[in-house]
Design brief:
With 57 residues, the chain is mainly α. The chain has 2 helices and 2 strands, in the order ββαα. Strands 1-2 form a two-stranded antiparallel ribbon.
Amino acid sequence: MYVKNDGKIFHFCSSKCENNTLKLGRKPRTTKWTLEYKALKKVANAAKHAATHAATK
């Protein structure tokens, strides 16, 4: 658990996640192995699939 000065609390599953976020400044949305990236891609793929499915009908 990491608490910033403004009171925002971060919970990290591993030291890999903590280092990538805090020390290296990486965004979870752009790192392929994170859950946030996978969820974002799943939503994007579902929307693309729905658009192509609607276009073929």
